[in-house]
Amino acid sequence: MGKTLEELQTRDDGGDSTELIGDLAYTPDDQLTPTAKLIKSIITGGASGETSDTYPNVPIKGTSACKADTCCIWQYVANDMALVFRGASGRCTGLARGAVRLGFHDAAGWSKNTGKGGGADGSIILAPAEMTRDANNGLQEIVAQMSRWYARYKDYGVGMADLIQMGANVATVVCPLGPRIRSFVGRKDSNVACTDGLLPGVNQNADALIQLFQDKTIQPHGLTALIGAHTTSQQRFIDPARAGDPQDSTPGVWDVLFYKQTLGQAPPRVFKFQSDVVLSQDPRINPELTQFAGPGGQDHWNEDYAREYVRLSLLGVYNINNLTDCSKVLPPATISYSNPDQAVLDKWLASTKHSDPVAKALRDGSPITNLLNAVLALLGKIRREVTFAA
Ligand code: HEM
C-alpha cells in the first residue's frame, strides 16, 4: 500500500480523516493512475484539495478537438453554472447554495455500514424516491436546474453524478472567498435510491452527528470544515415563519463569520442551527472550529474544506482509478470581497420583522441597498399616514 502506515499515523491525531475510500482501499499503488494517486494523497493529508489549474485554449463545443479532451465539455457546463450561481451583488445565489447542499446529499447517501451502493452516484435525481424524503426538502429548485443541464449535456457524455459534484464545486468557488476545489469526473450513475436515514438531522445530538459522519469516513475535523458551508445559507424549512433568515450576517459569502457567530453573539435575525450549536460546543469539534473563527482562519478552513469535500464527493465511488481531473474548468476564485451593502444588511439583521423582499433579494444574490431603503421609506410613509389619520 502506497499510503504508508507511518504517514497515516503522523496525521492521525484522532480528528483528521485519513481512511481510504472506494477502490483506493484495495488497489496497490503501482496500479494507480496519476489522478488516483493525487486523490489518495489529498484525502490522506498530503496534497492540497485546492487547485489553480487553468484551461487556456478551450476547443469549440462539438468539434473533434473538444471530443478528444474529456474536460472540454465540462468547461461549457461550468460556464452555464457560473451564470446562475453568481448574483448581481457578487454574492452567490440560492441556486449555488442549493448545489452545494445537493452535492452533499447525493454523496452522503453512503455509509461503511451499507456496503457498496449509494454515494456520489446521481441517485438523488435519477431515483425519484430520494427527493420525496423530508431530509431533501428545499432542493427542488436546484434539482430542476440540474435536470435541465443534464438534458442539455448528457448526449456529450456528461453523467448525473459528475454534474452534481461539479455543480457543488463551481458553486463553492463562485461564492466570494470560496475555495477552488479539485474536481474529478467519470463516476458511475445509479437510478437505485440510496438507503434512507443517512443524512444528518438538525435536532440530533453531537454524538449522533459525529458517529453518522464517522460512518462515512469523515472524522470530527472534517465535519467541522464541512458544516462551514452554512456560512452561505438562508434556512427556509426548519422554521418557515423565519424563511430566508441566514445562518450568519453575510449570506452568500464563503467567510468564517459563520463560525464566529455560531460560537458567540449574532444579530437577532441570524438563525443558528441547533446541530451547528451542539457541534460547536463538543470538545472534538470546538478547538478546530475556534481556529477557523480566529486569525488566519479563512485559509485554514478553505484548505480543510477542499480536502474534505474531495473525500465527500467520492464516497461510494469504486472507480476512482478511472477518473479524470477536470479542475481546470472551474471559474477563478474571488479571494477578496466585502459586501457593498453590509450596512443596510446589518439594519435588516438587527430587526425581527419579516421582510420577504429582502430575504428574496439575498437569495437571488441581488444588492439590497435600494430595496431596503424603499421598504423603510414605505414603512415610514404608512406610519405617517396612520398617525395623521388618528
Ligand atoms: C450536521 C450536519 C448538517 C445538518 C444537520 C444540516 C442541516 C441543514 C438544514 C436543516 C438546512 C436548511 C434547509 C432549509 O431549511 O432550507 C441546511 C442547509 C444547507 N446545508 Fe446543511 N446540514 C449539515 C451539514 C451540511 C454539509 C456537510 C454541507 C455541505 C458540505 C451542507 C450544506 C448546506 C447548504 C449549502 C445549505 C443551504 C441550502 C440553501 O440555502 O438552499 N450542510 N442544512
From TrEMBL:
PROSITE patterns assigned: PEROXIDASE_2 (PS00436), PEROXIDASE_4 (PS50873)
E.C. no: 1.11.1.-
Stated family: Belongs to the peroxidase family. Ligninase subfamily.
Bias kind Basic and acidic residues: ranges: 1-14
Domain Plant heme peroxidase family profile: 158-231
Residue ranges of the region described as Disordered: 1-20
Cofactor note (record): Binds 2 calcium ions per subunit. Binds 1 heme b (iron(II)-protoporphyrin IX) group per subunit.
Domain of life: Eukaryota
Residues holding Ca(2+) 2: T231, D248, T250, D255
Cofactor(s), by name: Ca(2+); heme b
Protein residues bound to Ca(2+) 1: D106, G119, D121, S123
Record protein name field: Peroxidase
Taxonomic placement: Eukaryota, Fungi, Dikarya, Ascomycota, Pezizomycotina
Native organism: Diplogelasinospora grovesii
InterPro entries: Ccp1-like, Haem_peroxidase, Haem_peroxidase_sf, Ligninase, Peroxidases_AS
EC class (word): oxidoreductase
